[in-house]
Amino acid sequence: MKMPATGLTRQELDEIMSVQRERDVDFKNGRLWTLVYYAGEDVEKLLADTFRDFLYTNGLGPSVFRSLRKFESEVVAMTVDLLGAPDGCGNMTTGGTESILMAVRSAREWAADKRGITEPEMVLPVTAHPAFDKAADYLGVKVVPVPIRDDLRADLDAAKAAITDNTVLIVGSAPNYPYGTIDSIPELAALAEERGILCHVDACLGGFFLPFMRKLGEPVPPFDFSVPGVTSISADLHKYGYSVRGTSTISYRDRDLRRYQLFSQTEWSGGLYGSPTMTGSRAGAAIAASWALLNFLGEDGYKELTKATMDTTRKLQAGINEIPGLKVRGEPDMSVMAFGSDEYDAYAIVDPMTERGWEMERLQKPANLHLVVTQTHAAVADEFLADLRESAALAAAMKPGESGSAAVYGSLNALPDRGKVRDVVLNFIDSMTQLEEE
Fold first, then answer.
1. pLDDT at residue 427 above 90?
2. 416 within a domain of the structure (yes/no)
3. CATH number at residue 88
4. What SS3 state is found at 143?
5. How far is CA 423 from CA 18, 93, 205, 366, in A?
6. Residue 13 included in any domain
7. How far apart (Å, rounded) are the C-alpha atoms in residues 222 and 240?
8. How many folded domains does the chain comprise?
């Protein structure tokens, strides 16, 4: 395919994009249980209008785009205040992965400077986000995984045993993505403080949700900077912050630690260069949109969205546990959950649910299904549970090999040679940028 010699008209482009958009899952109707955190049409319009107004601005140049300096600094200030460190600091990033990369880089550089560590390691539960593995791969830090307990939280004894003289960082999740459970952050942070190392809390999911649960009087395990020993926290604005995609935050308890994140090049012929995060140019529109949204919703708006989401979550949990053969795994601390069956293949539920218009994620080790609940699901919870009951009955009646795509997915997860599974995943990713046949 080549670029067209003559540009298409707006009408032609609109027609093509409209047809392609029809192929996407409609996330506004509540039938998608992952990827999108939608807060309603008023929020959507605010984000779209703000994004348009700041479309060409660049976060790399806050001295030129002085509005972005105000917006980012105020977003960070509001975030660290929510997370219990009003005197803390941080930056906006393009997503949770970049936030985690920054936390790992800071820990690596801090440990090299303060302790002379040249072969850094980090201890994290097996439920921690793969972004930590990516950071390890990119930054040359060894991952030391620890198992989880029966309550689906990090095994503290295993974490303690995993610490060595090369450990630079201990990680906990608030909550972890698979099960929605919060690791025992005070205990993990105490282990870190006892050994003089850093502790990062991955609150990409919960950072803009758990504080508002707490403000609603809900029980929330301690997870933030109010816990001694917690030194950095990642929290995504584009998840339960409801902002545009490509917005997250990395926060630190103090500025001395954050300096290890920063980058500068003083000898470049193009002039003095510095950047606070992994990226150089940054979409100023995303920074401005996030600032506008936090001020538009305010605490009351976030509490309203949080309450609606938690009410729906509890309704879904109760309904799932009433379906024969199904149960929610563990006791999720917020609006993310896994459920499955000890009696039949849970993956076999996916095809009949997809036929009914629902899009869910599969988990592995063990086989479970996954729901990320938002306020959009309140209107469809009853319909979802009714369809789930029917689909579960179909799955329970299936014989081995009759479960369609579930058999394929299940066989991949059961392969002992994980290298072959890795090849399948990489081949799939590679195919995503190949041209489709019309």
1. no
2. no
3. 3.40.640.10
4. strand
5. 34, 30, 29, 21
6. no
7. 19
8. 1
